[in-house]
Write a sequence for this structure.
């Protein structure tokens, strides 16, 4: 149905038509019963060690006070040698990392080279600054490329920091305390994994928004080891019974069948011209 | 297509000590850029067209409802301005002139106003055929739910409406 008030085709990208309506709705509800986006309320951490980078994350996703996802995956694939942990609004981190991954794939297929971490960081920085922090994604990027092992952190407004160890999310203070205490330059693999595990564990214990299992991702020149879960929560619920019902559990008491009679009212044949 | 005052603005902005900084207010930024529907009334003589756009309030007219609306609307234009300006400073006037000539030619390869054109030449020139952004995923014009009246769209495009 053609509308006569549409004079131009809509521009692709974000559409702000409903922004005024949403502002008016929020005023109407005074107290805000507007639906809240799913935040990850997270603890994520990363550490550079001798042969590469270790990234760690918890697996809880919260929606205000409710745990929305107990096995949420917060370590996202960017490139075969680059992985990214995301904190903030779950959809934003997911979409942003997917866009980044697509862009880097196009680049590496065009040029035949593995992407570098600085490229990923620059693309992210441009994208996040363009949207002035409205995209709520705080990311930790870690990877190994031809120039070495790197760990970067990108804030929602596009601020970038290159660091040897970092923690982000709502549980970052607790995790950072552990990292500050025990981090050493050029650690071995097991020591680095243990350090990240303890840091995420501290975040889980001290923060309500983090919890459940711990995922670890080890990136080295030889490849990636994504261990999910590295440590399972002690408070996993143990379901004793099966909740699946075999067919025939519910008795059928009566059955009535009404056949629908349909008559052919009109038949017209149109020939399709194949030009 | 809206061919804005590209070269003219470029030269005035880079004329001030080679540093390009837009220190003018919101109103002037509105003028230099692509007109935003609703901010500049489109009826005859600049009066609000109640039949087509409905009732309005002064507040909605003056300021956009979302902080990103203006900057997103003019993003491509502003990027181009910045890039051409720095290109002019580095390589001289001929570089942005030649590029803008090519852009202008590529922009004219379009279908009728109500049909979506692929803009292949423009994309290749810009380099946006090798990158994916939100404008490629969200709100795809080829799949928009509302269709415009073809005759009215052509008339609007030609300025007869």
């Amino acid at each position: 149905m053609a509308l006569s008030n549409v004079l131009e085709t809509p521009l692709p990208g974000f559409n702000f038509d409903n922004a005024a309506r949403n502002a008016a709705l929020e005023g109407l509800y005074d107290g805000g019963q507007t639906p809240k986006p799913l935040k990850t309320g997270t603890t994520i951490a990363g550490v550079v060690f001798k042969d590469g980078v270790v990234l760690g994350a918890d697996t809880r996703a919260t929606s205000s006070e409710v745990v929305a996802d107990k096995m949420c995956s917060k370590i996202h694939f960017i490139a075969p040698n680059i992985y990214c942990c995301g904190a903030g609004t779950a959809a934003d981190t997911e979409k942003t990392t997917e866009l980044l991954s697509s862009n880097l794939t196009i680049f590496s297929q065009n040029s035949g080279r593995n992407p570098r971490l600085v490229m990923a960081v620059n693309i992210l920085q441009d994208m996040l600054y363009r949207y002035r922090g409205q995209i709520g994604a705080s990311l930790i990027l870690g990877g190994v490329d031809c120039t070495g092992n790197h760990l970067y952190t990108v804030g929602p407004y596009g601020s970038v920091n290159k660091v040897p160890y970092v923690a982000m999310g709502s549980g970052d203070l607790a995790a950072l305390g552990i990292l500050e205490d025990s981090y050493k330059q050029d650690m071995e693999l097991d020591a680095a994994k243990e350090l990240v595990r303890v840091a995420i564990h501290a975040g889980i214990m001290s923060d309500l928004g983090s919890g459940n299992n711990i995922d670890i991702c080890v990136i080295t020149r030889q490849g990636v080891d994504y261990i999910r879960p590295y440590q399972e929560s002690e408070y996993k619920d143990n379901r004793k019974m099966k909740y699946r019902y075999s067919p025939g559990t519910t008795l059928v008491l009566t059955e009535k069948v009404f056949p629908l009679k349909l008559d052919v009212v009109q038949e017209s044949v149109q020939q399709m011209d194949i030009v | 297509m809206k061919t804005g005052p590209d070269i003219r603005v470029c030269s005035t902005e880079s004329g001030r000590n080679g540093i390009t900084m837009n220190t003018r207010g919101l109103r002037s930024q509105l003028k230099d850029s692509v007109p935003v529907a609703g901010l500049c009334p489109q009826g005859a003589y600049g009066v609000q067209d109640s039949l087509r756009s409905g009732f309005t309030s002064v507040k909605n007219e003056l300021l956009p409802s979302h902080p990103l609306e203006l900057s997103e609307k003019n993003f491509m234009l502003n990027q181009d301005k910045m890039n051409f300006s720095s290109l002019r400073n580095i390589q001289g006037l001929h570089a942005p002139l030649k590029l803008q000539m090519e852009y202008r030619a590529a922009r004219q390869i379009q279908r009728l106003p109500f049909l979506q054109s692929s803009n292949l030449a423009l994309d290749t020139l810009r380099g946006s055929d090798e990158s994916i952004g939100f404008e490629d995923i969200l709100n795809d014009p080829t799949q928009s739910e509302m269709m415009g009246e073809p005759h009215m769209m052509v008339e609007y495009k030609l300025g007869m409406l």
User: Anything to note?
Assistant: Residues 118 and 189 of chain A are 24 Å apart (CA to CA). DSSP finds five helices and 13 strands in chain A. The interface with chain B takes residues 1-16, 19-20, 23, 99, 102-103, 106-107, 110, 127, 130-132, 134 of chain A (CB under 8 Å).
